[in-house]
Predict the 3D structure of the following.
Amino acid sequence: MKQALAVSVLLATVLLVSLALVRLFSAVSFAEPMHMQTSGAEFESLFVIWKYTQGMTIYSDRYQPPYNAVVYNWLFYESYGLFTKTVMTALSLRDAWLPTVARFWTLFAVATSAICAYLAFAKISAAHHTARVLVAGFALLVAAGPLMGFWAFTVRPDVWAVAFEIAAAAWFIIKFPNRRWTAIFGAALFAYLAWSFKQSSVTFLLSVGVFLLIRMAWRELVAMIVIMAVAFGLTFVIGEPQYINNILFSGYPLEFTVERGIANVTSFVIKMVPGVMLMLAALFYRSRTPGTWAEVWHDDIKLFCLVAALVSGSFALATSFQVGSAENYYFAFSFYLTLCGLALMPAVDDWRKPEIVLCGGGWLLLAGALAMVLSGRIGITDLRPNHVNNAAIKNCVDPLQRPLYVKHPYVSLPWMSDYTTYFVLSYVYEKERRAKRPFVNGGIGGYIERGDLKTLVLPGDRAPAEYDGATLSGYKQIPSACPGYVVMIKKDTNERGHLGELSQQPK
């Protein structure tokens, strides 16, 4: 039975790695820059990384042109910006290569997550062959499995944030309780780094705080609180007012829906089915084995793992109902759920048939789902069609007269449309415009009303009567080869003007 378990883990892991590589190869090319989004609203982050490479101010007001939102924490932009600028300068690459270069920094986070997860899982598992196979499989599942998907090659703070969360937990369970202060100080450092990428990455801090409170480890709890308070406090003292305003999401419109939450939970369960089945097997084992819950209570590591799973699961569930959220809200929970499942299970040598069937069944279900994705029956394996479409729109936009506005988040990036009149609108721009928020210059609608824009590229097959609250009576539609878009020019523009040269050549 244990050999069958190992085979099911190996089978699913091979398919898991195969899918990750297929997706990676679809999103990268060394022959040409690839123009696609590998995660939602990635364009916002790409634009800010570009600003870093240009020496521009990072944290800006989203109500000021070009109306972009800079909402993540400082280390995300500093690390991606420094890596990208260094590589692009060394290789003399033009700006169009920025997304490809920046995404490679995320792969280092994936590797960090896999290594740290393996160390954490191995710490609480037996060291024989079957356990090593199981531990390695779960480490790869958390770091590069279907839940991670294309996020493994995107420009977002989530992957590095969860990598440091995993590092914090791994450090803590390896050092605690034998080296308490080493555990506290090291874990605090990793926890701060996780927060410095994404300010909502605090599940480890919440988990270790609850654990220390339960254990009434007052000195360690006070030390952790003081360390983090000083670290956060210094960050806010050093940070400029706009930075503080942005990372606190001041005035940022947040909405929550039941449909979004259910969709995220369902997606998590399907893509993380081995971890879910492992947890069910652990609960089944504990329920039929008298006295084992008392053992958990008296074992510091097991108790921490249980607390972390409960805290991170509650945090993920509560936040994943937010409109715009996705599976990334469950990245940390996927690690803590697996960690808890392994901690609550006995050594693999002591697994009985029910535990083996449940756990092995989870891996076989995953293998079946992965096989269907690789065969093209479900899911997405190739983003090149997105690149082809974006490149077609760019080619259509290139000869149009500037100043120009194109309603396409990725094609609006400076290296795609124009280096002088780009508008990279925030994810919540339209929502805030409907709410009558005070945008400087009246937003895009204001530019249209004043006739500041010579060309508009809008989605659809027919020109609308108005856009962003502004009438389009001063514009007329012209023939266009832009796929799925209409092109409009100012009526007082020379009829041949839209075929003119760009106002400024790319850098």
